[in-house]
Amino acid sequence: MSLQPYIKLLKTIEEREEALRKLSDAELTEVATELGNAELPYDRDDLAELCALGREAARRTLGERPFDTQLIGMMALLDGHVAEMATGEGKTLTGALAAVGFALRGQRVHVLSVNDYLARRDAEWMRPLYTLLGVEVGWISQESTTEERRAAYAADITYASVSELGFDVLRDRLATDVSELVVPEPNVAIIDEADSVLVDEARVPLVLAGAAEPAESDAAMAELVRRLRPGIDYKVDDDGRNVHLTDTGINVVEKALGGVDLFSAEDTTLLSRVNLALHAHALLHRDVHYVVRDGKVRLINESRGRIALLQRWPDGLQAAVEAKEHLTPSETGEVLDSITVQSLVLRYPIRCGMTGTAMAVAEQLREFYELEVAVIAPNKPNIRIDEEDRLYATAEEKEEAVVEKVKEVHATGRPILIGTQDVAESERLAKRLRRAGLECVVLNAKNDAEEAAVIAEAGTYGRITVSTQMAGRGTDIRLGGSDMRDRDRVVKTGGLYVIGYGRYPSSRLDDQLRGRAGRQGDPGGSVFYVSVEDDLITTNLPEAKGYRVSSADGEITDPAWKEMVNHAQRIAEGQLLELHRNTWRYNQIIDVQRSVVLEQRRAVLHEDLGSRQLAVDCPETYQRLVEEVGEEEVARAARLVTLYHLDRGWADHNAFLADLREGIHLRFLGRRDPLDEFNRDAVPAFKGFLDEARARAAEMFEKLEVVDGRLDVAAAGVKRPSTTWTYMVQDQPFSTDLENIVGRVKNLMGRD
């Protein structure tokens, strides 16, 4: 898209700036108030005034005069685009200025980020700017109480992680009184790290579950699968997402369990228990997918490299991992509702965002969110030197080469940032560096609370930093350290040197790591070390062979093989896109059905629909109860009973859809499209949903009894979960029991 309309305004903005500098703070606030007396969108003159006003307010309150590029980014956001701005170009301030522009004209603004830390930091950092311009700001985190959340959402501008917002929306869907609602009607979403939120996070639906009962540990099954032999008793699929028992493994397991038949119809849970234990053992790895902290399994968010607090896998898998780690099992629960990032963000009539790597996913942003990308050139030219990848035959040779490179670069005093794929990798490399006499600082999911301090000092002279996923770390790396005291000395060494310890499944993540060097025209450099044994290669090109080692240290310089690395990454990106599309496709019909339920819920909460329906369905009982306890008490009970059956019905329907989705791929064997089959079954299953919920509510209403002047809805069966938590689920789940059966059938057919 063309930036010319914005660029043409820069001269007018600069001319207006001098007049605004002469105003007092109070007069500046008054100008902002006057500017808010019109509606969106801003006309040309008002837009120039807003930009000049924001620039002067930022200069006074933050000590930063926004660059022209930041004002261009601000205008792009106000027009509903995603602004691509390189690391260090001031995206936080750009987003804040746009937020002011929306808020001044009466729009409620939610600034969404990838984590709580950034939400709080940015809200507090920008607060003086907002205050001067007459708008209020709030923020929420996982620790925020209900009242703190309500107060934060009441502000003109609210900062929150996308997951916290999503979970608040889900919890609101369980509200039984208007006073319990927390999230107001949405207006504007400004999305920081837009590609991470809208693409990476979108692969994992947000799911709310309610406590049901204590889980039982399956320690015996965990011990059984621990003794199975990889490649002999079980095999992991090439993509690393599924695992299945071989015929040998089936025989071993059946014998160990006392000669049972795993595929017998008499005990359908047995195969499921074996599969869950096997998934936990073979596919989920400690310090890669999760860590154990304070006696509990804590999930690691794959796209951010951080602990995902309050998140867990669905019950059976969670319990299997806990059994694997010899931990006390946590409570089981049932899924109450879920929401995808697409559905969450598309609730907002106006949406926009900023990130350093948007063009690589421009088609997805257009396809899923109707967003266009505006590429903003850097304020100063990028002079970072990006070296060619170094490819090695084995992981061991790659690691040796990395250590030697670090030793060589460190000798010059040049700061080094090494980006790794996971916790285990970061700790193994750090240990090896220390054995070589190279002291380093490690940042991963085990110590992510220290991230701001660690990242801020990564540009210090002589510093070596090893970090997992850098996306969303949020803190600039300034040459010479946070105080930039040694800046000149570090500049002479060549600036920050970034080493990628393997290519990521997405080129965007590579670019985000590279982008940590060379901010605002600083010198810097980057290089990626890859081995043929890296997961990226073995998972996506498992049959790739025939390379020729070019040197004694195992390096491969053949250009064709280096292109194979790019090819493997493109395959991985294609699979990630398919995951995203699947999430979107399968949720289309679910979203339509959910909207019907939510509209009914809204009418019950706000328009007393439950009371009116029950007055029609149960006229005699309704009248009798009104005479006994009063109309207000009957309305309360009617609301609770009606909502209970709407929510109960939706939870049951959700469970049906989940089971349907898990088994639907089997229909592919019959040359039928799984998505068509899913929709064909999902639509009739929902038919009559509202009538059924209404009938069940009427049946329960008839049984209500008066106790101490109140209608006892609990005695009639209205129950709410005592606690709730969130699940982390993949939309392309581990293989199901049915898929394992199909695998066995295929094996038998292959033998014949």
UniProtKB/TrEMBL annotation:
List localization entries.
Cell membrane; Cytoplasm; Membrane
List the GO cellular component terms: cell envelope Sec protein transport complex; cytosol; plasma membrane
Q: Which GO terms describe its biological process?
A: intracellular protein transmembrane transport; protein import; protein targeting; protein transport by the Sec complex
Enzyme class, first EC level, given as a word: translocase
* Entry-linked CDD domains: DEXDc_SecA
- The EC code for this enzyme is 7.4.2.8
This protein's gene is called: secA
| Record-listed ATP binding positions | 70, 88-92, 476
Q: Which family does it belong to?
A: Belongs to the SecA family.
PROSITE patterns for this protein: HELICASE_ATP_BIND_1, HELICASE_CTER, SECA, SECA_MOTOR_DEAD
So what does this one do?
Answer: Part of the Sec protein translocase complex. Interacts with the SecYEG preprotein conducting channel. Has a central role in coupling the hydrolysis of ATP to the transfer of proteins into and across the cell membrane, serving as an ATP-driven molecular motor driving the stepwise translocation of polypeptide chains across the membrane.
Task: Provide the assembly information.
Answer: Monomer and homodimer. Part of the essential Sec protein translocation apparatus which comprises SecA, SecYEG and auxiliary proteins SecDF. Other proteins may also be involved.
Q: Per UniProt, what is one GO molecular function of this protein?
A: ATP binding
Q: Does the keyword Phosphoprotein apply?
A: no
The entry's keywords? ATP-binding, Cell membrane, Cytoplasm, Membrane, Nucleotide-binding, Protein transport, Translocase, Translocation, Transport
Occurrences of domain SecA family profile (ranges) = 1-558
The Helicase ATP-binding domain covers 72-231
InterPro entries named in the record = Helicase_ATP-bd, Helicase_C-like, P-loop_NTPase, SecA, SecA_Actinobact-type, SecA_CS, SecA_DEAD, SecA_motor_DEAD
Q: What is this protein called?
A: Protein translocase subunit SecA
Catalysed reactions, semicolon-separated: ATP + H2O + cellular proteinSide 1 = ADP + phosphate + cellular proteinSide 2
What species does this protein belong to? Answer: Thermobifida fusca TM51
